[in-house]
Amino acid sequence: MGTFHHDKGDLHGITVVVDLKDDRLYVGRCDTVTPQGVILLDGALHDAGAPGKDGTPVSKQDFLTKAAKFGIWKTFDHVLVPAEEVSSVRPLGELAG
Q1: Is residue 67 within a helix (H) or strand (E), and if so which, with residue range?
Q2: pLDDT at 94
Q3: Residue 23 near residue 60, CB atoms below 8 Å
Q4: Partner of 92 at 20 to 30 A CA spacing, among 10, 18, 32, 56?
């Protein structure tokens, strides 16, 4: 049947969106949600204020729409997103379809 990590939480192994309290968000595979923050693997950080390929900023919603449809371009292997910066954590799959 597969490996289960009951001590890792319900989101373990699921690709999630970690929305921050500013113009940034992370998309990555959730390892663990702890009191210190969210541990993500194989993900990307999006800054809505940063220019896209054409020089204009890409909104959070546009980034998430594309990520839900095509996936992300991995920019990190492992990160701890500090709990005090996190606004919400939800599965990316909620946006698909």
Answers
A1: helix 60-70
A2: 83
A3: yes
A4: 56
Note the Cα 34 to chain centre separation in Å. Answer: 15
Q: What is the 3-state secondary structure of 19-65?
A: EECCCEEEEEEEEEEECCEEEEEEEEEEECCCECCCCCECCHHHHHH
Measured CA to CA, the distance from residue 93 to residue 13 in angstroms comes to 12
Q: What is the pLDDT of residue 2?
A: 43
The dihedrals phi and psi of 92, each to the nearest 5 degrees, come to -60, -35
Please, what sign has the CA dihedral across residues 62, 37, 6, 28?
positive
Specify the fold of 15-95.
SH3 type barrels. (2.30.30)
Average pLDDT over residues 90-95: 88
Residue 82 has pLDDT above 60, yes or no: yes
Instruction: Record the pTM.
Output: 0.87
Domain locations along the chain: 15-95
